[in-house]
Design goal:
Number of strands: 5
Number of domains: 1
CATH topology: Rossmann fold
Oligomer: single chain
Strand content: 15-25%
Radius of gyration: 16 Å
Number of helices: 6
Strand order of the largest sheet: 2-1-3-4-5
Amino acid sequence: MGDKYIAIMASHRKNKFTEKYLDKYIEELVEDGNEVEKISLRDYDIGICKACGYCGRNYGKCCVEDDMQVLYEKLRKYRNFIFASPVYFNTVSSLAKIFIDRCQMLFECKYNYRKPWSDSEEKGRGIILSVAGACEYENQFKGSEIILDAFFKNLNVEIVEHIKICETDFK
C-alpha cells in the first residue's frame, strides 16, 4: 500500500498547463500504488484573510465563513501534499496566496497555542509543482519555494521535491 496525498491545484485556468502537468504527476503516483485526492482551489469560495486576530484568540477557528472550513479539514486529514501553481511574478498565483494567507489559523495553532492543527506527529512530505510561461532565469521559482516552505512548516511537512517547468508560453 502506498501513501496518501492531497493535490492542491492553484491555477485559475482549467485544463491548462499547470493542471495538465499535475494530472500527469498524479497519474504516475497512482500507478505506483499511492492514493491522491485532487482539489482545485478555483472550485471553492475563499475570502481574503482579514488580519483580525480572531484565530489567535480562538484555537482552530477563523471568523470568515466560507469554503475554507472544508479545506481546513482536508489539511488536517493528510500528511503528504502536492501543491501545483503557475508562477506569477516569481511566486504562486493569487488564488494560492489567498488560500495560504487564510492558513494563518494553522500558524496560530502551532506557534501561539503550541498545539498543531494536525493530530499526527509524523513529518509529512511536500511536493511543489511550479509552472512558468517564461524562459528559465535565475530565481524564477524562488518565491514559490519560500512561501510554500512557510506554509508547509505549519503542517509539519518538509519539501522533498520541487518540480520546475518553464517556457510553457512557447508550447
